[in-house]
Amino acid sequence: MTISCEHGAECHDGNIVSRASAPEASRAWLLIEHPGPWPHEAADAALPSGLAELAGAAGSTGVRLQLIRKPGRRPRTGDTRSVFMGWTAGREPWLRRASVSASSPGLSERDLKEMAAGGAPSFGAPAGEPVFLVCTHAKRSVCCARYGIPLAQALAVRYPGQVWETSHVGGHRFAANLVIMPHGLYYGPVGLAGATAAIGAYQRGAVALDRYRGRAGTPRPVQEADHERLASAGSLPVEALV
Hints:
two-stranded antiparallel sheet, 242 residues, 26% strand, 14 strands, 5 helices, alpha+beta, ten-stranded mixed sheet
């Protein structure tokens, strides 16, 4: 069974092979809080000047840009926004967070270039806990909104403060999509049970097999090899990912 979406895309009922489908080039990440609306391309969002410059610089430096917002579409007031910078590749991924002024975020293109090269900036402070991203980007696919929004809201009840709706993460045919940061673990299509199982495994330091798409920033052959090992063992320690 499929459900038609715009641009000829289809939402599937979950009977779809999604292994080794995480974005290979996405190692450096920039997450900018923006309540919306979200245009088709995140970089085209109507952000305040300081954040708009930062978003524009992300693409030219090889940093993946994600717009994020708290589930529930609460209106954003004031000038302060949450911004995350993260690195998902290798054995020591990291995620840093700060509350910044939307007009003057205190980050530069140089910071993004350093991060794209694998260096950890002196930005903010360590996030302190994992972040769970759920794609709800309706402008890219109504499937992501249809399945992602209720999933994000349900997860936010279980993991308060850790769940964010996010713009397109890639593979809307796998909606709902979950990305676990800082390791960049992709899961989809997942419902509430699958998402909580994936998060629960991650909290125990493991990678769950069911609906695992792969790890962002990892070449496809390596993702395929990791999936084979997962399929054989049922789960793997996060540290075992190559």
